[in-house]
Structures are given as structure tokens and as C-alpha cells.
């Protein structure tokens, strides 16, 4: 199964977002993989600073791992460059699949 969602990057933060993800914490990668998340891509619309994420799942979505201390630390680490909720989770909106081609 695949899920897609969008988030909002703050203007001018593209390079910092890329830098932080290039150095993603190994323990966070392990947590995602251990929970069945693979083939995870995030794209940026540079005109609107909208982030578009797609994940292939055999378990939970990354959006469902917010109860872990590790994910909560990542959220706080990213909060200064993204639009967030009061708990520092990224404001995330699920996207509906309207077409798929294998």
C-alpha cells in the first residue's frame, strides 16, 4: 500500500531541509524501516514550498509514529523550518489517490 501527504516548508528553507535529511539520524531510518515504511520520497514544489511525501507501507505510516520519543525529537529538530502543530508535529494533510498506473 502507498500513502501520500503534504506538508509546508517555510520559505527559504529548502537548503536547510535538504541538509537535515541528507544527515537523517540512522536510528530514525531504522525506526521507519522496522515499522514497515519503505520507498519513502519527499518532493518540493518550489513555487509554494509545499512538500509532497509518498511512502510504501507494510505497517504504519510515519505519521502514526508520533508517540515515539525519537519521532518527537525529530519533529522538534525540524520545527523551525516547517509549519507545525502545537506539539511540533508537521502540519500534514493526507492526499487522495485519484490515479495509478503500474
TrEMBL record:
Entry-linked Gene3D superfamilies: 3.30.70.100
Keyword terms of this UniProt record: Carbohydrate metabolism, Cytoplasm, Isomerase, Rhamnose metabolism
Xref: InterPro entries: Dimeric_a/b-barrel, L-rhamnose_mutarotase, Rham/fucose_mutarotase
UniProt key word Acyltransferase: no
Keyword Hydrolase: no
Gene Ontology MF annotations: L-rhamnose mutarotase activity
Enzyme class: isomerase
The protein's Enzyme Commission number: 5.1.3.32
Top-level division of the source organism's lineage: Bacteria
NCBIfam families assigned to the protein according to its UniProt record, in alphabetical order: YiiL_rotase
Protein name, UniProt field: L-rhamnose mutarotase
Organism annotation: Sphingobacterium arenae
Lineage: Bacteria, Pseudomonadati, Bacteroidota, Sphingobacteriia, Sphingobacteriales
